[in-house]
Amino acid sequence: MFIIFFFYTLFPLVETIITSFKSETFFQDNGFVYLDNWKSMLQDEIFHKLIWNTVIVVIGELVLLLPLGLLLGFLLNARFKGNTFVKVSTFIPYLLSGVMIAIIWLFILDPGIGLINAGLTRIGLSSWALEWIGGVHFTPYSVVVVDTWKTVGFYGLLFLTGLKMLPKDSFEAAVIDGATRVQQTFYITIPLLKETIKVCAVMIVINAFNSFQTVLILTNGGPNNQSHLLTTYLYRLTFTQFDFGKGSVLATILFVFVMAFSILILVFSRKRVGE
């Protein structure tokens, strides 16, 4: 087990950190430049913008997907006609490829040919037609919407699984004590779902940090690199410009961010449970 962990996790991580202190390209290795790559990256205005964009995507998806996934789980757990249809229809987007979903939303969000702006213009609300993608401000928020639409069905099924596994004894006792449905939800169901919520939160954060295809197809980081995320700019530096040193800086920062957010979620959820 340790050998697998070493070769697939520890060694690549250490190698990436070492490379971040070197001037290395696809063609040559110029040796160590120590903190030059880090100084250059941290002083770059594009770096500040892509960090901000990434934080918007991570927090936005966490804020949207957790409650929406939980509500969808409650809905799917109820018995009603068409339950199976709702399960299938909400899960289908998760099965589609990221490229296909990005192309679908490209024709919806594009400022020039998109359905949203075309519809707003047609009903006389052309002043509301904005640069949903490709502009300076709204691209990360559009990425949040697209990723939420794609994955909410998956998290809904995870919460549904958690709801199915809850012990019935607690709810039967609550009914005997006169607890309402709302009281049962907030004082029994949600606390018992703490592990599911914790797992879903960590998965949402990791997937949000790894968001790549959506941005690459919708905007390719434009205009002037203003809509890049950590992952897309990392890709550009490493596999387009072949600047492995600066690419490794971004990869190291991405790793630190993912670990920090995940630890914060675990610590916060543990404190909440303790309270």
Report on this structure.
α12 (230-240) runs antiparallel to α13. The longest helix has 33 residues, at 45-77. This protein is mainly α and 275 residues long. It is globular and about 75 Å long. The protein has helices spanning 2-19, 36-42, 45-77, 83-95, 98-109, 115-122, 139-164, 168-176, 181-192, 194-209, 213-218, 230-240, 244-274, and strands at 22-24, 29-32. The model has no long low-confidence stretch (mean pLDDT 90). Strands 1-2 form a two-stranded antiparallel sheet.
What is the share of helical residues?
over 70%
What is the N-to-C order of secondary-structure elements (H for helix, E for strand)?
A: HEEHHHHHHHHHHHH
Strand arrangement across the biggest beta sheet: 1-2
Mean pLDDT: 90
What would you call the structural class? mainly alpha
Q: Unreliable stretches, pLDDT < 50, 5 or more residues?
A: none
The whole-angstrom Rg is 22 Å
- Please tell me what the overall shape is: globular
Count the E strands.
Answer: 2
